[in-house]
């Protein structure tokens, strides 16, 4: 008997509060039985200790990009994924994680300069599509669940994956 074809998915978090990850794990309460038939969660650090990024169909990326190291990591993910979906306002717009880009007082800027100098931070916090090509976006802070579900369904269809296939 042929094995059920599955959508190979990765879920990644960068600079953010990870609330969309929490929301996603909550969704598993209702959708785990259905999803495990059609989705392989190949990279999902919130739930598994063994994770791989090779051969992803879709990478869901939450959070803004706040360092050169993170920029390299998202580029690496892009290189391993056929499609990339930005999840939540921080990934889609940069905000609120990018708030520090807009601080204007000298006192605050001096403190920021200290952190920029002493830790692994880039000068500006970037939204995801300033660093890599993004194919879809799930807006919301945290993500809008109905749009996330629509996008997941879209990719299942795109890859001709259904529980009855
Ligand atoms: S979009 Fe909102 S909920 Fe999501 S990580 Fe950013 S701040 Fe947190």
UniProtKB/TrEMBL annotation:
Highest rank taxon of the organism = Bacteria
**Does the record carry Oxidoreductase as a key word?**
yes
Q: Does the keyword Aminoacyl-tRNA synthetase apply?
A: no
- State the UniProt keywords alphabetically: Oxidoreductase, Ubiquinone
- The NADH:ubiquinone oxidoreductase-like 20kDa subunit domain extends over 25-154
GO molecular function terms attached to this record? iron-sulfur cluster binding; oxidoreductase activity
TM region positions: none
Output this protein's name: NADH ubiquinone oxidoreductase 20 kDa subunit
Q: Say which species the protein is native to.
A: Candidatus Daviesbacteria bacterium GW2011_GWA2_40_9
